[in-house]
Amino acid sequence: MLAACVVFGAGYWGLDFGDGELKIFGRWDVLAVCTLSALPIAVLIAGQVARQSKVVRGIAGGLSAIAIVLCVYADGDAGALLSASRLSVSAFHGLLAVAATTLVISVLSVVRIGKDRELGLSCSRRVGLLFAVMAVALPSVYTDSVSKTMTNQLNRALSNQRTVKAAAYARKLRHLRPRARIGDVAIATLIESLQSRIADLEAVASRSLSPRSPASSLANRVTALVQLEHLDEALIAIRPLLSGDKFHPASFDFYGLCFQRLGDPGQSLIGYQMAIQFWADQPDSIQKRQSLESAWKGVAFAARQLSNRRMEERAFHELLAVAPAASNHLLLAQCYKEHQKMALAVKHAKQAAAMDPALQPRLEAISASIARDHLGCLGGVK
C-alpha cells in the first residue's frame, strides 16, 4: 500500500504542471481512457504475476515502478522519440497505462485473476491478445479525435488572437501529437513563438503609464491585456479611451469584445452598437469597413446569445452590405439553418461556394446537415 502511494503520488506530481496541464497524456480525459482501456490486460498480467514467487513479484513490481517514474519525469523531447507515427504515441500512452494499472492491482492485491487452472492456455492467449489490442487501439482512436478537435480550437484561438489560449492548446496538442504541424509550422516552434509573444505582451501590460501617456500607449496596453485574457483589467484600462481627449475608435470594439468573452452579451451588444454609431458618421475608408465588419459580427454574436433572432439576421445582412465576402455569406447561411429557414440557408450557401471554392468542405457540412433534417430542400446544392 505504501509503495503504491509513493509511486503514484510522485507520478501525479510529475504529471501535473503548475497550470493544470498533464505531462505525457496532455489531458485528463485521455489519461482516463488510457487507464480504463488498460484495465483488462492489466488484470490478466497481475493475475499471472500473482502466481509467481515473491522474488519474481518483487522484481516485476520494481521494474514497473522504475519504468513509470522514468516515463513520468521524462522530458517532453522523450515523447518525441516515439512520435514517428500517431500509433506509436498512442501505444506509448497505452503501455504506460498498462504498467501503472498492473502495478496498482499487484501491489494492492485487490484482484486475483488467473488462479483458475481450468482455463485453457490458448483461450487465455486469445483473450490476452484482444485486451492488448484494446489497450492500444482505444486510446489511439480517442486521441486522434481529441487531437483533431484541439487542432481546430488552436486554429480558432490563433485567428482570434487569443494568445494565452492558443499556447495552452498547443502545449496539450504537443503531448498527443509531438510532430503535429499547424499550417507549415511545427508545433514545438509554434509553442516557442507563442511563449515569446506572451512575454512581450506581459511586458507591455505591466509597463507603468502616467496620466499624460498618449492614447496609443493606453490602447496598446488594452490590446495586451485582452490577448492575455486579463479582461477585467482591460475594462478598467479602457475607460479613458471611451471618451474625452484620449478617445480611441477601437475602444468600443474592445469594450464589446471583453464583455463577450466574460459572458455578458447585453453589455457586449452596447459596445458594438456604440462602435457602429461612431463609424457610421465617418468618411469611407478601409479602416471604417473593417471596423464595421467586426462590429456587426459582434452584434450578431450578442444577439444570438440573447436569443434575438431578428436582430441576429439583420446584423448578418448589414455585415454583407459592408463586406460581401464568401465567409460572411456562409455565416448567414449557418444562421438561417439554425433558424430553420432552409431555403435562405441554401441560397447563401450557394453564393458562398460560388465566390470561394475553398469553402466547399464547410458548405458540404452545412448541406449534409440540412439534407438530414429537411430532405428535399437541397435541390442541387453541390
Number of helices: 17
Helix and strand composition category: mainly alpha
Gross morphology is extended
- Radius of gyration, taken over Cα atoms and rounded to an integer in Å: 28 Å
What is the topology, as strand order, of the major beta sheet?
1-2
Distance between the ends? 63 Å
Low-confidence stretches: 1-18, 75-85, 107-123, 374-382
Number of domains: 2
Order of helices and strands: HHHHHHHEEHHHHHHHHHH
Describe the structure.
- InterPro entries: TPR-like_helical_dom_sf (IPR011990).
- The chain crosses the membrane at residues 28-46, 58-76, 91-111, 123-142.
- This is Tetratricopeptide repeat protein.
- There is one protein chain.
- By secondary structure, this protein is an all-alpha fold.
- The protein has two domains: 2-193, no CATH class; 208-373, Tetratricopeptide repeat domain (Serine Threonine Protein Phosphatase 5, Tetratricopeptide repeat), CATH 1.25.40.
- Helix content is 73%, strand content 1%.
- It is built from 17 helices and two strands.
- The protein has helices at residues 2-15, 28-50, 54-72, 76-80, 86-108, 121-159, 163-176, 187-206, 215-227, 231-238, 251-261, 265-280, 286-305, 309-322, 326-338, 342-355, 360-373; strands spanning 181-182, 185-186.
- Strands 1-2 form a two-stranded antiparallel sheet.
- It is extended.
- It starts with a helix and ends in a 9-residue tail after the last helix.
- Residues 1-18, 75-85, 107-123 and 374-382 have low confidence and may be disordered.
